Amino acid sequence: DNGGLEYFYASDFPENPPYQLFVDAYRRIGAMSAAECLHKSAQMFPFENAHLHAADRQKFIEKSSLSDFSALSNKICGDKSVWEKLSAYVAIHETEFRAA
């Protein structure tokens, strides 16, 4: 929500899930624009399995002047529609969340 994609890619997530998991989650709730931003930005890293290499991601972002990356970051950062879509998704699937 804040810090943009630079913050998203700054460190590893617990258990290092592939970024496709996040893309799929955004798509599942209907946040297609955010999903596309994540998908496109993850493909910009010039090495495989970027989700496993925090230091390499950081170096790449710091050393690159990626106007395309920045544009995607600006597009997703603060996108309130993501929260609206998440809220609607939870409301529709409320019983599933309660069972978990």
What's this entry about, in short?
With 100 residues, the protein is mainly alpha-helical. It is built from 7 helices and no strands. It is globular.
Notes on the protein architecture:
It is a single chain. 66% of the residues lie in helices and 0% in strands. The protein has 100 residues and is mainly alpha-helical. The chain is globular. The mean pLDDT is 90.
What's the mean pLDDT score?
90
How many beta-strand segments? 0
Helix and strand composition category: mainly alpha
Distance between the termini: 25 Å
- Secondary structure: helix percent: 55-70%
> What is the makeup of the main sheet?
none
CA radius of gyration is 15 Å
Oligomer: single chain
Stretches where pLDDT is under 50 for at least 5 consecutive residues are none
Overall 3D shape = globular
Number of helices: 7
Helix/strand order: HHHHHHH
Instruction: Please report which band the strand proportion falls in: under 5%, 5-15%, 15-25%, 25-35%, 35-45% or over 45%.
Output: under 5%
Layout: helices, strands, pairs:
Layout: H1 4-8, H2 19-29, H3 32-42, H4 54-63, H5 67-76, H6 80-92, H7 94-99
Helix pairs in contact: 2-3, 3-5
